[in-house]
Amino acid sequence: MKTMTRRTILALTAAGLLAPAFPAQAQDSLQARVEAQKVTVGIHNRRPWGYRDADGNVAGFHPDLVRAALAPLGITEVDFIISDFGALIPGLQAKRFDMIASGISVTPERCSQVIFSEPDLSVGDAILVKKGNPKQVFSFEDIKENTDFVLGGGRGTLNTKDALAAGVPEDRMQQFPGAQEALSALMAGRVDGNVLSGPTATMLLEDPNVGDKLERVTPFTGLMRENGEPVALYTAIAFRPEDTELRDAYNARLAEMTAEGTVAEIRARYGFTDDEAAPSYTTAEICAGL
């Protein structure tokens, strides 16, 4: 596969060869970013998705993926803006940033607001509890049935929505701005467990101050589809609806990086397993509700 480069994009756009496929506004948006060699990206400061590390540098699966994808296009300056998770899509719509690269999942509802790249990961829900799992919960059904169990989760996340869809009562579902606030509530005993993605749970437990006190519930049965398959979250990069050409240029690079093994390398760097590789579903299928 021929790698798409900055020179290729500028030449095709100048020649008008991209015009039949993309509206002028979409062409201009991509060309402007390539010429400026810069994009602005929204993240929500949550490991392993997109966060500032101890040295103040932005790290995470999606920031690393975006940098690797855009560099050959000549877009070498990637500025990151930290936002609450629930404010990411509004921020994208308000043009505070050009892309969202921070563990956002593809859903039919979100597909009506933004456009997505092809999926890059497939991950399930996880539950963190105090060591020993004192209330012995191993499923959303157990949490639903245990009237003394209060569950914490991130406001607006798919993990929280999965818990509610599985029947966890809203009055026993406390929602927080982010994972750190939910974690603090669990450590302080204000909630009995946290619902979050499997990779996020793994990363949090790597901190000895957390891992010595909490554990991940295993085995755990999450929300199930009607066909008996577990519901998973399919993550991708989000763009404004008019930025189709930027999205398509990114998709071309994502396919190249997948074939080269770059995506697998970045995935392993942040604790994701091969089981969490991109699904066989396309974004169009996920947007249609599978």
3D architecture notes:
With 290 residues, this protein is an alpha/beta fold. It folds into two domains: 6-122 and 235-287, D-Maltodextrin-Binding Protein, domain 2 (3-Layer(aba) Sandwich); 125-216, D-Maltodextrin-Binding Protein, domain 2 (3-Layer(aba) Sandwich). Helix content is 37%, strand content 17%. The protein contains 13 helices and 14 strands. The strands form four sheets. A five-stranded mixed β-sheet has the order 4-1-5-14-6. Helix 1 runs antiparallel to helix 2, helix 3 (61-70) crosses helix 11 and helix 3 (61-70) runs antiparallel to helix 12 (262-269). The longest helix is centred in the C-terminal third of the chain and has 17 residues, at 244-260. It starts with 5 loop residues before the first helix and ends with a helix.
Keywords:
37% helix, alpha/beta, D-Maltodextrin-Binding Protein, domain 2, 5-stranded mixed β-sheet, 13 helices, 290 residues
Topology:
Elements: H1 6-15, H2 24-36, E1 38-43, E2 51-52, E3 58-59, H3 61-70, E4 77-82, H4 88-93, E5 99-100, H5 108-111, E6 115-116, E7 121-123, E8 125-130, H6 140-145, E9 151-154, H7 158-165, E10 173-176, H8 179-187, E11 193-197, H9 198-205, H10 208-211, E12 214-216, E13 233-235, E14 238-239, H11 244-260, H12 262-269, H13 283-287
Parallel strand pairs: 1-4, 1-5, 9-10, 9-11
Antiparallel strand pairs: 2-3, 5-14, 6-14, 7-13, 8-11, 8-12
Helix pairs in contact: 1-2, 3-11, 3-12
